[in-house]
Records
---
Amino acid sequence: MTSTDVISQFQRYVIGNYTRYPVCLSRGEGSQVWDIEGNRYLDFFPGWGCGLLGHCPPRVVKAVQDQVAKLIHVPNTWYTESQGALGEALSTRTTFDGRAFFCNSGAEANEAAIKLARLNGRGSGSNGGDRYKIITMLNSFHGRTMGALSATAQPKYHAGVGPMLPGFNYAPFGDLDAVSQAVDAETIGIMVEPIQGEGGVNLPPEGYLEGLRELCDRYKLLLIFDEVQTGMGRTGKWFTHQHWNVKPDIITLAKAVGGGVAVGGLLARPEVAEKLKPGTHAATFGGNPIACAAALATIETIDQDGLLKRATHVGEQFAARFNALAEKSHLIREVRVKGAMIGVELATDGAPVVAECLKRKLLINATHQTVIRLLPALNITDAEINEGCDIIDEVVLAMK
Ligand SMILES: *Cc1c(COP(=O)(O)O)cnc(C)c1O
């Protein structure tokens, strides 16, 4: 089969709800990936942030291969060793004694967090009433299911599928006063990405996350960090909020947790977590043996290969390259980097840059119209970073 054959098969049989590039990928290794014609691409955006260890990380491959022959799936009516071990591995990396619930995706993780917040808000109002409202931020992204979508404060994602779920108030990212003003007697929580991903790799202003914690303490609200994109070592700490002096009540995770295998989940403070009782919430595939084995192998790889440190180094390399490019091109407005989470604000649309890089066999992403976003593997080599940055330099410098 050729890419053209595959594309016509999609046109006939697969719903066209994605904008796809006309390339059919077939295998990958680290930061490199090949299409079915055998062309090699350098991947600065493996798996849309899920490929934290690049394509087919060896320990994850081995763990999945071993597990799949032993037990593929058992429901959560039974105990399995790997789910308990993953709970411990994640919890001991939090600073708030987190207790885990497992599911399969980021949207699902946020749905669980929304429900957990509401369960905590039951009868918790000053007059004994329920508190159920959650404040989220403009330009946020929390997922595509109706609850997570209602939490997502970007009108383009709401278009055509309203009405949204009630109970969400939006405030500009970085504006503590606006959050404070949005709190009312029915508010139970604040949900925020510590660094906004889809919204353009927006770093929190100084004091912002700590200020949100203070507001939560003052009004007895739950602080929920959506770490779906930022978690698992992406920015040089296990969880990105750990760069600041702030403890959340709930964090949500997905994308990178399983080294490319679908795993999602949340971690909550014990007193908050206990409201998730039997019957309140569930996920049939959540915490299945393959997912947990993959996630444990991912954590082991990050530890044994020193990848938290490496994330910081990767960020420094990219920052140096883009800051150098900014000296030469007026198209670079701002470079925003935290570890291996890189955003480059352009003075023009990002899509043509992505397209020109693809022609040169470099895979990158553009988000929020004008932001080049890179979520490279933590184990990308310096040589690969320079190879790809040379291509981006060439593309940007050729643009008007
Ligand atoms: C990708 C993402 C989600 C949604 O994750 P899915 O697995 O696609 O449902 C939620 N929150 C953030 C911050 C994300 O980046």
---
Amino acid sequence: MGSPAEPFRTVIEPFRIHAVEPLAMTTPKQRAEAIRAAGYNLFNLASSNVLIDLLTDSGTGAMSRDQWSAIQHGDESYAGSPSWEIFQRAVKSLFPFRHVIPTHQGRAAEKILFTVVGGPGRVIPSNTHFDTTRANIEFTGAEAVDLVIPEGRDPKALHPFKGNLDTAALDALLHERGRENVPLVMVTVTNNSGGGQPVSLENLHAVRAVCDRHGVSLFLDACRFAENAWFIRAREPGQHDREVADIVREMAGLADGMTMSAKKDPLCNIGGWLACNDDALAEAARNLLILTEGFPTYGGLAGRDLEAIAQGLKEAVSHDYLEYRIRSTAYLGEALDAAGIPVVLPIGGHAVYIDARGLLPHIPPLQYPGQALAIALYETGGVRTSEIGTVMFGRQPDGSEQPAAMDLVRLAIPRRTYTQSHIDYVIEVCLAVQERAPSLVGYRIESEPRQLRHFTARFAPLV
Ligand SMILES: *Cc1c(COP(=O)(O)O)cnc(C)c1O
């Protein structure tokens, strides 16, 4: 199966524009002033000072005509709204778990899940925990352990499924810590913090087998389930003729539950859910939900949000959409790679990750080469990206600071939002920064909070 555009090179967007948003042009002088006032933290910038916003693909996508029309169908009854039924049916058609618990976004599902199963002495293994997942686990006093395969930590290693979990390491950890201290194993699909790399079906089956041997449950952090399933279809032997929706159902069938952010593959601006098969876990989770999110048939969302998610889930597994999505991300990554900018290979699903340590070898990890590169991309062309490295992961629970495994800068691509000419501009900006890379300087942190410091820390250049 191919797209109608197959004989041509251009990555054609499988949609046309229905409503437009203006983009603000700024001068280099305005940007230098804006980033200084922001304490050199890109999260502190007003988006009106950003031209191309690749800070995150979370909640920043464009909804479709059919999603906006579904919003008009939203029923705002407090309890038992038909929009809840439509939402639940759409979720269960891909993820047939017994209990579906809506939340206002992914981290609310994590907070509830780990409040129930976490706590001191507990350990939660994953391929790589996302930052909010890790923070929610550690907040309960439990330990978050990353067990991605060794290739997943090497930006240059070519492996089709670099998000895979190291099953031998998982088996060893379960032996050492005992099932009573490991409430569940998590697998993040795709592996966001590890470069947006997919997990194979074969690996999910192998993880399931280890979990079964030890009597431990398996949960998916399924934010990018559709992109992961597309990679399985494209790269895994024997999967090429399958429907993506069918692959998703097989992935879900291997797990006992999931957390989800509807701001990612479900193509919405807000939303999420927790799902599981365990009745006792679901009851404990619903009791917490009522405390902080809302009644179990809306969980922090409006009826119209539930409708938009239901429609978004149908569009997320469309082959035309996924082909465009994955190819357009690769288009950016391949251009940077061809120009000699070190990027994580193969190119992931939702983002391109520049290896800042590779591009700026003169800046040591504790002077934050990823932050330095992200600031330079903004100053040069108004492109906002995010550091995924020592700023994000360097502070240890005991208060010490260590270099992260990698210092990356993530260029996250919002879904259905930018065109190929926007991306061509981003490529030009990256090449301009590459040219003056040796002149970039490191940064120090002037102030930081206790948790998730990358969101609010303030920096100063080391000049
Ligand atoms: C975004 C994300 C989350 C958290 O979801 P939010 O909706 O941002 O709270 C959790 N895990 C992964 C892998 C994510 O990408």
